Task: inverse folding
């Protein structure tokens, strides 16, 4: 009887340890992205998309992002600009179907908006692309790539809901004024001109830029401006509609 009990306990113990081992195996099979997804930071991802070296402290690139950059010749920029996600995929995330479908920024490269429906491992691998033509593994850590993956998976917007084909923001300017005065005017002033973004070219404040490049400014309102004290409105808990309303009001400032 005692022997039977002992054998039974041993069998139970053995099964439990097998079960635990199999759980650990499952964990081991999880990708880096799956395992760390809950810690991924989409606000940091949005800033990395803009200008990653201002965010992760790497050295600003001096070469071109090759081989990919050299596959086009319409956009004549060189050096660090050619490494910025936005330079190829756009502030509106639709690359050559959006604002960069023409003009000096045209590359012919597609956007990343459609990619947000892909699974997180596919997005992660497409960005990092170690040893491929899109290899960011030398300048972005896995945590950086994960934050970018989170931004692409959860942070992108359909630009056509916020800015029309003529560049006019489609929001509620009255709500935007209230939100501008509580979230922006302390730094940029009630008229938007406290900080002049371009010392050479006349007054270029918030109103000027909101009209000149609404797609870019909506990105900056939502995520902040890399390397500055400017806060992210997504991070502050504002909805995307609220950010669109701020843009709409900002277009009325001159
Ligand atoms: C020099 C231009 C260039 C830069 C800079 C660039 N990409 Fe790309 N990216 C491409 C090209 C070209 C492709 C391939 C598109 C295709 O296959 O249609 C691509 C593909 C992707 C894809 C996969 C798209 C898909 O649907 O499969 C993702 C995601 C992506 N890039 C994200 C990024 C991120 C994030 C950054 C910044 C860290 C970045 N890219 C910087 C040119 C660029
Ligand atoms: C804590 C201060 C602060 C707050 C709050 C703030 N900003 Fe900024 N913002 C800055 C700084 C600093 C810069 C960078 C200026 C520079 O480098 O020339 C900047 C940059 C910008 C730019 C220019 C980006 C570019 O491409 O050069 C715009 C547009 C802008 N802010 C709009 C806004 C709006 C709209 C809000 C409210 C949602 C806001 N900011 C809130 C400090 C702030």
Result:
């Amino acid at each position: 009887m005692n022997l039977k009990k002992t054998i039974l306990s041993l069998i139970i113990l053995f099964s439990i340890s097998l079960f635990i081992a199999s759980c650990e195996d499952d964990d081991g099979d999880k990708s880096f992205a799956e395992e760390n997804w809950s810690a991924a930071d989409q606000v940091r991802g949005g800033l990395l998309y803009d200008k990653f070296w201002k965010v992760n402290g790497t050295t600003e690139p001096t070469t071109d992002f090759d081989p990919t950059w050299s596959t086009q010749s319409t956009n004549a920029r060189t050096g660090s600009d050619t490494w910025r996600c936005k330079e190829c995929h756009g502030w509106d995330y639709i690359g050559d179907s959006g604002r960069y479908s023409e003009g000096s920024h045209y590359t012919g490269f597609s956007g990343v908006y459609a990619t947000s429906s892909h699974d997180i491992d596919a997005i992660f691998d497409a960005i990092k692309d170690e040893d491929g033509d899109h290899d960011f593994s030398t300048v972005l850590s896995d945590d950086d790539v994960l934050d970018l993956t989170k931004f692409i998976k959860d942070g992108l917007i359909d630009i056509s809901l916020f800015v029309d084909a003529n560049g006019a923001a489609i929001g509620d300017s009255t709500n935007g004024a209230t939100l501008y005065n509580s979230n922006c005017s302390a730094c940029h002033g009630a008229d938007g001109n406290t900080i002049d973004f371009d010392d050479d070219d006349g007054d270029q404040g918030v109103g000027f830029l909101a009209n000149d490049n609404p797609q870019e400014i909506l990105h900056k309102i939502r995520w902040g401006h890399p390397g500055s004290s400017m806060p992210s409105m997504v991070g502050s808990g504002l909805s995307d509609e609220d950010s669109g309303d701020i843009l709409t009001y900002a277009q009325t400032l001159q």
Observations:
- The pocket of heme C (ligand 1) is lined by residues 49, 65, 68-69, 82-85, 87-89, 109-110, 112, 114-115, 123, 126-127, 134, 136, 148, 152 (CB under 6 Å).
- The CA atoms of residues 127 and 187 lie 34 Å apart.
- The radius of gyration is 24 Å.
- DSSP finds twelve helices and no strands in the chain.
